[in-house]
Amino acid sequence: MKALATSPAARGLEDDAAVLPLGSETLVLTHDTMVEGVHTLDGQDPADVAWKLVAVNLSDLAAKGAEPLGLLVSHMLGDDDHRFIEGLRAVCTEYCVPLLGGDTVRSEGTRAWGCTAIGRATHVPVPSRSGARAGDAVYLSGLIGQALLGFEALRDGTGGDESAYCRPRPQLELGHALAPSVTAMMDVSDGLLIDASRIARASGVTLHLDSDAIASMAPEGRLEEAMRWGDDYVLLASGPEGLEAYHPVTRIGTVLARGDEPLLLDGSPPEGKLGYTH
Amino acid sequence: MKALATSPAARGLEDDAAVLPLGSETLVLTHDTMVEGVHTLDGQDPADVAWKLVAVNLSDLAAKGAEPLGLLVSHMLGDDDHRFIEGLRAVCTEYCVPLLGGDTVRSEGTRAWGCTAIGRATHVPVPSRSGARAGDAVYLSGLIGQALLGFEALRDGTGGDESAYCRPRPQLELGHALAPSVTAMMDVSDGLLIDASRIARASGVTLHLDSDAIASMAPEGRLEEAMRWGDDYVLLASGPEGLEAYHPVTRIGTVLARGDEPLLLDGSPPEGKLGYTH
Q: Does B88 lie at the interface with A, CB-CB under 8 angstroms?
């Protein structure tokens, strides 16, 4: 969609959310679509699909430090609409965000669901991917690899905890708290390594990550996968040293001047695929 | 989605657009989804699909007298994405509205496209469906049945004018101009009769329409179909007598106190299906 940006108001189009000044406020707008079988597992509870659809959009707002004002949801009707509505109700209640409207359609084929989240910035300038500067520290705001474990539990029916995959929890309060202090921020939706490389590229810097520090945030023995799997919706940020004294974040690296590679893990470019690409 | 309205901010949820006060401004938000084969004809040019996707959302803003601020578009990738992008570019340029962002996804099945349009109200209170009062006149702002003719031309390959079906033109300027004067307003998307009955129900009144007046706005010999076909995206409004002296609208009826029927055509309830229902 980038090629179509027709306005300077579309600052941050490279980001997961659009930023739009309006009167005395700054709007933050995001839209994500989920496709049956692509972003969901066969037979997954539609209540969980609805929760996740909303949660991933709220997570985009969290990464902007934005406060959600409302949602528009597009729903393709099926046999299990009451479960979808149930999940919508649960996530809207949990995050105190009103469903303002949307659309329902019928389709014979694969179903898809869309959500637009509308938020207001709590801090201007709104954090983007492009503000990381050499000398900043790199922070991660929670565990990775939990969605991977949840996905496996659901897929294999092991009875393990599926919640991180099925009902991710956007870090709205933490994003709000971090926004004034960070230089760049995004949520880890496609994998820590690929998302870190996106901050590096957008900021014109190199991110140097420390696998020992990351290992403390990942399931034992699954570090390599956990760094590439995504769907965890924790926050990845750059900012001044010492933020861990004030916020529940862990330092996982340092921002360097741009070298040959945008991303280094213990001094070398990470091997293989970095994460999920659309 | 109605059952889920969780906030009084969702005023006008029965409407095609949500109204959300924010600081000194009032946002108007709308989302519509189009499904391949449901809202499009097989083999239709994706550039026209993109145009229509945006235009129907802008038409919802027009009915609120809102000025468009930007769009978020969700696109399912296919073999013909360049044509879709071409149509997006054309409609964004035509209506000077920036594409702020959105999402692209892949799906093996039937494709669907979503658009969220964000606007700012130019007049508060924002016109809704529920303000029609006994004694008001009923107005129509343009021709009906043109999309019907365009659809037939495209389907049958007659070489006739397809533009009203393929590239509808939202009446943004007229909606803006009418907003301070009307008591209720909506766009004719599902058919004049069904849309008129929606204003009547939302307002708790009866709309009495005059088929002779409507006939002057419809293709000769196709009046009954034209009143039920929709897709024309002209504006239907109620308001004080005499608006036709100041605006390009035609009086087509009168608002009565609520009688036994919400809608009368020449004194009797219209026969058969009133229009397209989702």
A: yes
